[in-house]
Protein: CN hydrolase domain-containing protein
Amino acid sequence: MEIFQRNHFSLSEGYPGPSGELDYMSKHPEGAHIIVTPEDGIYGWVFTRETIYPYLEDIPDPEVNWIPCTDPQRFGYTPVQQRLSCLAKDNSIYVVANIGDKKPCNASDPQCPPDGRYQYNTDVVFDSEGRLVARYHKYNLFAPEIQFDFPKDSESVTFETPFGKFGIFTCFDIFSHTPAVVVVDEFQVDSVLYPVAWYNTLPLLSAVPFHSAWARAMRVNLLAANTHNTSMHMTGSGIYAPEAVKVYHYDMETESGQLMLSELKSRPRSEPTYPAAVDWSAYARSVKPFLSEQSNFPGMIYFDELTFIELKRNTGNYTVCQKDLCCHLTYKMSEKRTDEVYALGAFDGLHTVEGQYYLQICTLLKCQISDLRTCGEPVGSAFTKLEEFSLSGTFATRYVFPQIILSGSQLAPERHYEVLRDGRLRSRSRTPLPVLVLALYGRVFDKDPPRLGQGPRRFE
Structure:
């Protein structure tokens, strides 16, 4: 059915607050087939368990075949679901939103909270007829989400549409194997819907570079809608295809949100442009480490201690290793500034702050100032330019996410670089680029604890 080969998808990046996203959606569908809104986009997030309760609704399993717009009282008082359903139905558009679910429990359940209910961070999807077609309870809660409970079991939520198969999960879930990798690898979805409230943590965990890298490495469409709140360093939404970034918005200067619209291939796996799988360690394991008389030095990135080596020459080859990971870099700089310092770093270990997950990272980055102790600190601009580069690592995982961040926290256009099947992130245009960060960010899932967050709350 050729008509469905390309479809329009829309994202809303907005400031959170009561009904704000609902008003936005009612005014701005712009002919899209599906619209995704941010995590916490309707309520905001400054809540305790008690203060969020009045906003929660009973969200049933989609198997009940329910259109809240035409039958709003079937599951009690559900004004938000009714409004979302009517927005979808009246505009003939799929609507994706993040709200809160409540489920009663009692003493027969040993994990039942003292107030007699579970509260879940929940994504809902309504189809173009207003029918509830998907409900997802966020499995990997981030540390500050004290208002919600951890689901007992993970769930892989997918649904079919005339324009492809979709999966859905929320924010911190993207670091996990379940559900993030599972919905792509095992359920073979074409596109992932991804509401987030992501605060950018430079240099390696800024929303747009990380999310676009995930889409590229997982070879799937990703529709990432981030909350826009600059006081919390939250911005950065985008529509990402396996082969290219379609559109993104990053703005730390203003408080205005943005509606993004893009056309995507609805079934990318069947396209001739679908990227080949990458063997991320093939090249790095085939070459000998580059020897250097320079000493390594430690540096911190988001509470993880990397092993660094300084790039002292305008052109060179370097290797830096930590535990089982060795990172190889070949590069050529132009317009090298004497007051700007770059370093190559490696990390192979368990990250333990605000969640626990095992990482292998190779990164070339600009240090904040010429003091090597600032390597790994956030940096906003660069004047030195890289004309050629090739970065690779001896990764023990096939889940590696390649990032290139330019001065001003902008993405490098795809025409300037490539990811080779042997695992090299390599320049290809010879155009000098003001690089802040090159990174191969690897996740080693088989070394993870059972759950990324602090685990389910247990009440005595």
